Amino acid sequence: MTQQTYVELNNGVKIPQFGLGVFLVDGDDNTENAVIEALKLGYRHIDTAHAYFNERGVGKAIKKSGIPREEIFVTSKLWPFEFGEGITYKAVEEMLKRLQLEYIDMVLLHHPMKDYVGAWKDLEKLNRDGKVKAIGISNFDKDFERLDKLLKNATIYPAVCQSECHPYQTQQKLRDALAPYKTLIEAYYPIGHGDKTLIDESIFTKLAQKYNKTNVQIILRWHIQYGNIVIPKSSNPIHIKENYDIFDFELTPEEMEEIKKLDAAKYYFLVPFEKYEEIMDSYNEKIANY
Ligand SMILES: NC(=O)c1ccc[n+]([C@@H]2O[C@H](COP(=O)([O-])OP(=O)(O)OC[C@H]3O[C@@H](n4cnc5c(N)ncnc54)[C@H](OP(=O)(O)O)[C@@H]3O)[C@@H](O)[C@H]2O)c1
Q1: Alpha carbon distance 178, 151 (integer Å)
Q2: CA 269 to CA 280: how far, in whole Å?
Q3: Domain residue ranges of the chain, discontinuous segments joined by +
Q4: In 99-164, where do the E strands start and end?
Q5: CA dist., res. 203 & res. 192, Å (int)
Q6: Which ligand 1 atom lies nearest to the CA of residue 232?
Q7: What does DSSP say about strands 6-8 and 14-16: parallel, antiparallel, or unpaired?
Q8: Which fold has domain 6-288?
Q9: Which one, of 278, 286, 290, lies nearest residue 113 by Cα?
Q10: If you take atom 29 of ligand 1, which residue's CA is the nearest one?
């Protein structure tokens, strides 16, 4: 397996372009196992969140791995009840304790809700204080007015916007809106949350045969060449290995173009925006208690 690629964020920090997402990895112990497995294979980027209930497992795996801290890029996210000036600063200090880390590589605002502008001011302070190396946002493709408001109030522009992105949803509008700020797209649901219809598209089967890869590997390779940061989730050691093995081949420009034709602006995450805040709030107590 060849080495994975790195990209530079808008503040000069380098991030491994590929990482392990741990959403829905059940509990700290399973997360610890998945992260250890990934780190052994060469993964150096882990994406978690307070709302995934497994930051402690990520922290334990990093400690156990013996890999120098500076070689691993850790991202976590804050839930909206943790947003606000003064509140967010403390919430990140709590996050550092759960992860057993002195600093976090990147913290994201998980959703464009509540006092995200106040939260952003605290993230800027945390960044200046060196407790967080890069700061970013997530799911702001749901409301461009909120994105504008954040950008207008920012003194540090988001390093990434983590959003649903896959060959059925290339996030072109978001990409265009963020280009002036050099904010990168970090793709969640990169293989459509495991959707067979996407994975089994004939173009991926054809290219998988040509390159002696799996359909999922072709999709992940597409993300890399498209310029996305990509964080597929798996707790299955076979998939963890397979997903990382995408750095020894290259799709041609024509193949990239052909895949682009699948874009249908389709979302798998379909919570209606009017109900968004109510639904997100229903998780508050459980998250606060983790
Ligand atoms: N910011 C946000 O609001 C947000 C929302 C969703 C996700 N995320 C982040 O993005 C990450 C990825 O998203 P996701 O986990 O929802 O979706 P995903 O990575 O597109 O798909 C994960 C699903 O695909 C399966 N899978 C993984 N590798 C496979 C392979 N090689 N062959 C066949 N199936 C495979 C996994 O099952 P196995 O475990 O069995 O392999 C799992 O069911 C998350 O873990 C999280 O870090 C962020």
Answers
A1: 10
A2: 13
A3: 6-288
A4: 104-109, 132-138, 160-164
A5: 16
A6: 19
A7: antiparallel
A8: TIM Barrel (3.20.20)
A9: 278
A10: 239
